[in-house]
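#lab-general

N.A. 3:47 PM
ok so I finally got the sequence cleaned up, no stray characters, all 209 residues accounted for. can someone with queue access submit it? mine expired

B.Y. 3:52 PM
send it over

N.A. 3:53 PM
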Amino acid sequence: MSKIGILAVQGDFAEHCQAFRCLGVEPIEVRLPEHLEHVQGLVIPGGESTTIIKLMDLYGLTEAIKERARSGMSVWGTCAGMIVVSHRIMEDDLHPLDLIDLDVRRNAFGRQVDSFEADLAVPVLGQAPFHAVFIRAPAIERLGAGVELLTQLEDDTPVAACQDGVLVTAFHPELTGDTRFHGYFLKLAGIGQPVTGSDSSPEHSTSVL
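B.Y. 4:20 PM
back already:
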């Protein structure tokens, strides 16, 4: 049974599923607490953070995810997912999962029409830059002392970080065809070895298992 779960209550979970399939992993779509039973790593995808948080509460997933994370389950939040796993949402009264010591600002770069792309240096993924897609993206406003910065924009805005098995990206790796972040998360979750370097687009992807 697959040990990677994708929170599938809202957002672009299908694209994450496809990215992991390119790496030879068939993920579990997580909609109820019992779906977490065999999950070693959970992805919380992009979407609408307010809706995701409310649906997690409705389906009893909030405490279940926190408990599994405390027990060692790795978690990756992309875009809205980064908001969901953060310590604090700067301009909101919503209660995120508080799985990583950072504060975030929603829609930090503007509305949908202000979406943009950028080539980022991400040393943990190898020398080739990662082409990142930002869509109504959040930004990291504060990094805790124990949080590792993975990459930032040219203006020094942090956009990816990691702490104790929790990974966050303000952008959408699942939309690029470059599976290196998905491979990195598999390694973080203790599943196989990631594909690194520039040969990780779907036509060059190989199984990590």
